[in-house]
Structures are given as C-alpha cells and as structure tokens.
Amino acid sequence: MTDIRDILIDGIDQMFDWFDEALVNLTPEQTNWLPEGKTVSIGFNAWHIFRTADNITNFVFQKQPTLWQSADFAAKFGLPPVAQGTGMSMDEARSLKVNDLSLLRDYGSSVRTSCLDYLKQVDPAALEVVQMIKPLGEMPQWKVFRQVVMTHGFMHLGEVNAMKGQLGLQFSI
Question: What is the CATH number of the domain that holds 104?
Fold first, then answer.
C-alpha cells in the first residue's frame, strides 16, 4: 500500500520543480508584468505559493518561524514580513514587485527542502490531525498539503504559464 506521504512528496516536489523551470531566465520586467484585468504578476504568483508552503509547513504545522522570517528573506526582498498574499487587495497584490529572481528561486528551493524534509520525517498519524486553516476551515494535515500547497500551487503555476504564453515565451509543461 502506498504511504500518503509518498504521494504528497511526489506532487509537491514536482510542483516546486515546475515552478523553478517556469522562473528560469525571466527578466525583472517579465517577472513583474501585469496583464489587463484582475490578475497578478508571475512574481506575485510564485512568491505567494512559496510563502504559503512556508507558512503551512513551518509556522502552522511545526510551530516554528517561517524561513521567510528566520532566514531574513523579507528584508532581503524588501517585502512585508508577515503577508503572504491571502487577503491582500487586488491593488496591493498588483503592486508587489519581485526584482531579484535569483533570490526568489533560492527562497523557493529552501521552502521545497523544508516541505519535503517535514513530509519525509513526520509520523503518518500526525497527517490525520485536523488543523484550522483560515479562511478554508478545518481539515486533516494531509489534505492541507494536498489542497492548499499542491493543488493551489499547480493552479498558480497555470497562471504563470498563461502569462508566459502572453509574453511570447515558451513554457515547459
């Protein structure tokens, strides 16, 4: 029988791998480009997913500071120390700029390692513990990883690839 951790590890690792591929070789202008309408930039999409995975893995589940705070990424980026995108107004989200793509990719890599390390060592019974996740409600930890990190992440990755297409750039999925 397959261990649920193996499924989560495989999906989350793939999501981070595809996000990293999507970010390679983008310019700051491409990273922060805003299409018409109610949407956000490639940089915001990636930052938001990395911040969400960091918050869930480190702050919510392990009750420790996020990498965003402990490794001083907020100061390095010059971005808010606590915000991660959820609950931001569209104007706030559209105004967020990610100007150091290398740093964004480093942060994503660090969060990826943190998520995968946690999933590799956590007792499977702990993944059944029901957790409050605002604004979604209560769900077991395995579902938080599957829905809030993995599925949500792939949705934002689709937005990134759509924007790359609008910019005339190739994407690899």
Answer: 1.20.120.450
pLDDT in tens, 74-97: 999 999 888 888 888 999 999 999
In a domain, 12, yes or no: yes
Report d(CA 124, CA 127) in Å as an integer: 5
What pLDDT digit, counting tens, does each position of 3-61 carry?
Answer: 999 999 999 999 999 999 999 999 999 999 999 999 999 999 999 999 999 999 999 99
If one counts the domains in the chain, the total is: 1
Distances in Å between the Cα of 92 and the Cα atoms of 78, 86, 102, 139, 166 are 15, 11, 23, 29, 23
Q: Is residue 171 one of the residues assigned to a domain?
A: no
Structural domain includes residue 172: no
Evaluate if pTM is beyond 0.90: yes
86 within a domain of the structure (yes/no): yes
Q: For residue 96, give the nearest of 117, 116, 77, 122 by alpha carbon.
A: 77
